[in-house]
């Protein structure tokens, strides 16, 4: 048998099988098919084209608007810790202490220097009073010509020196006080307090740890005020401006409204993006959470259906389409972006077709919808 004859025989066999299998509306066993299942209590919606906002997605990370990284200002050893990560603190709360013997000794020495300078001022003032009194007596004697001009000039010089001594002593006292204030401020660096109310997000120090100026100790972030720092393609530079309203989606939280408050004008050479900071507010926000910002770029025509009408099984996405004869058929579709409670449908259905919106769990293929 030739190849052509074999192909013709195969096609004839397939046609005969199809004829007998479908003849008389009978199933494989020859039994007549039953009436279609009737489903009630479902909602239908007619698909139509509408304006869909055209958006550009930009990914980013949530950061606290105000974050304080507290570092050591003096060398020493951490002597006590009064907080733990995740703890909420108030402004001025003691976080930890540093043992710095040299700083404390310096502060004590500065206080002693202030006391010594104060005594020196008292002493010079006493000398000034004595010099003033002596000069007054010599002035009277000089007028009576009881003392010589040289003796009179000597007393006046002693009075002037005493006045200058008081001024120098007062200046030394002021200097000692400033040095004591500076030493006291440095000594105060041994007590690390919270600069703002917030939550401790990181604790980098432990008791017994030796620290130096600049060593990170604690990070405190303000609660309730967060920003999404999104990476925007450089092609949109000049189109994203402070004040723009954007849609934000945070994993685990959902959709939020955001507002661009700052645009960093520099381009990252590696990613070819710039950073836009978007103010957001919602419960459950934490620094480090992944998020997406959707930047409005006009609109276009397309089709959307409610999310509850879409079924996903593995990689397949489908909806129930109800024909003019009210028979429901499962239709595979290609979904696009999720826009609020709607899903964009790129292909698979046409405008004017009806789909099952609610009650889809009761529908089976071939069911009659009433």
Descriptive notes:
The protein is α+β, with helices and mostly antiparallel strands and 370 residues long. 28% of the residues lie in helices and 38% in strands. It has three helices and 23 strands. A six-stranded antiparallel beta barrel has the order 3-12-15-14-13-16. Strands 2, 17, 18, 19 and 22 form a five-stranded antiparallel beta sheet that branches. The longest helix has 43 residues, at 101-143. The two termini are 56 Å apart. The model is unreliable at 1-32 (pLDDT under 50).
Give the end-to-end Cα distance, rounded to a whole number of Å: 56 Å
SSE order in H/E notation? HEEEEEEEHHEEEEEEEEEEEEEEEE
Strand percent estimate = 35-45%
Oligomeric composition of the shown chains: single chain
Give the averaged pLDDT, no decimals: 81
Would you kindly provide a brief summary of this structure?
The chain is an alpha+beta fold and 370 residues long. 28% of the residues lie in helices and 38% in strands.
């Amino acid at each position: 048998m030739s190849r052509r004859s074999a192909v013709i025989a195969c096609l004839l066999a397939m046609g005969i099988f199809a004829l007998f299998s479908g003849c008389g509306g009978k199933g494989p066993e020859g039994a007549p098919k039953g009436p279609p299942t009737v489903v009630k209590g479902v909602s239908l919606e007619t698909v139509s084209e509408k304006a869909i906002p055209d958006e550009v997605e930009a990914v980013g990370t949530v950061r606290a608007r105000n974050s304080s990284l507290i570092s050591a200002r003096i060398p020493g050893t951490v002597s006590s810790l009064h907080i733990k990560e995740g703890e909420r603190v108030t402004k001025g709360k003691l976080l930890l202490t540093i043992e710095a013997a040299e700083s404390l000794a310096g502060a004590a020495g500065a206080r002693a220097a202030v006391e010594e300078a104060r005594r020196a001022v008292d002493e010079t003032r006493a000398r000034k009073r004595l010099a003033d009194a002596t000069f007054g007596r010599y002035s009277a004697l000089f007028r009576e010509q009881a003392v010589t001009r040289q003796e009179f000039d000597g007393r006046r010089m002693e009075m002037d020196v005493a006045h200058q001594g008081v001024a120098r002593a007062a200046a030394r006292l002021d200097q000692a006080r400033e040095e004591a204030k500076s030493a006291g401020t440095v000594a105060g660096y041994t007590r690390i307090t919270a600069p703002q109310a917030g939550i401790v997000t990181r604790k980098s120090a432990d008791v017994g740890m030796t620290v130096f100026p600049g060593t990170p100790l604690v990070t405190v972030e303000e609660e309730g005020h967060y920003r999404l720092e999104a990476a925007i393609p450089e092609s949109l530079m000049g189109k994203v401006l402070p004040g723009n309203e954007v849609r934000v989606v945070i994993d685990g939280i959902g959709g939020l409204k955001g507002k661009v408050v700052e645009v960093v004008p520099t381009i990252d050479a590696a990613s070819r993006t710039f950073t836009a900071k978007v103010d957001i507010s919602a419960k459950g926000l934490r620094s480090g959470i992944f998020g997406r910002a959707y930047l409005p770029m006009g609109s276009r025509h397309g089709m959307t259906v409610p999310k509850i009408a879409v079924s996903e099984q593995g990689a397949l996405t489908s909806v129930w389409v109800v024909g003019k004869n009210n028979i429901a058929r499962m239709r595979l579709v290609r979904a696009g972006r999720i826009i609020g409670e709607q899903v964009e449908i790129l292909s698979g259905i046409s405008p004017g077709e009806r789909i099952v919106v609610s009650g889809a769990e009761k529908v089976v293929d071939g069911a009659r919808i009433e």
